[in-house]
Write a structure and sequence with these properties.
about 40% strand, alpha+beta, two-stranded antiparallel ribbon, OB fold (Dihydrolipoamide Acetyltransferase, E2P), single chain
């Protein structure tokens, strides 16, 4: 998580250095990073697993519309998708490839297909939290629409 905060800080500094005001979208990822974990026995797995414990600031975002900037992580080729993984970081730095934490990715269910882009895009949708199903990511954006790319 310290890496995330450090990288997030670099992103914020680069926005300030370029004369832009810090984007509201960056604050969403920062807030989503405010989690802890508890060990809990999972009957299906047969051992203890880490379950997320969401902070109050994260819980306050549940079922609310959020606007968030990030990167599409291609899982089935580079085509238009209604369901995909979205990351705070580019593919080479994301949770699955570059060692960032699970709080830096989310599942997306878009209302229309979103075409793959290597550059960051901005999505708007309703945030759902998951601390029960270990086969899913802890964050999901539903009814998502692309705002800009």
């Amino acid at each position: 998580m310290k890496i995330f905060v450090f990288i997030s800080g670099l992103l914020l500094l680069s926005s300030l250095a370029s004369g832009q005001s810090p984007a509201k979208e960056e604050n969403v990822w920062k807030t989503l990073g405010k989690i802890s974990y508890k060990k809990e026995y999972d009957e299906l797995m047969g051992f203890k697993i880490d379950k997320p414990v969401f902070s109050e600031s994260v819980r306050s975002m549940e079922n609310k519309e959020v606007t968030i900037k990030g990167y599409i992580i291609p899982v089935e080729g580079y085509k238009s998708h209604k369901e995909f993984i979205f990351s705070a970081f580019p593919y080479s730095m994301c949770f699955f490839c570059g060692g960032a934490g699970p709080e830096t990715v989310m599942e997306v269910e878009a209302t229309e297909g979103v075409k793959y882009a290597a550059d960051a895009i901005v999505l708007k949708g309703t945030l759902k939290l998951n601390d029960k199903d270990i086969n899913r990511l802890m964050y999901k954006l539903v009814n998502a629409k692309i705002v800009k790319n």
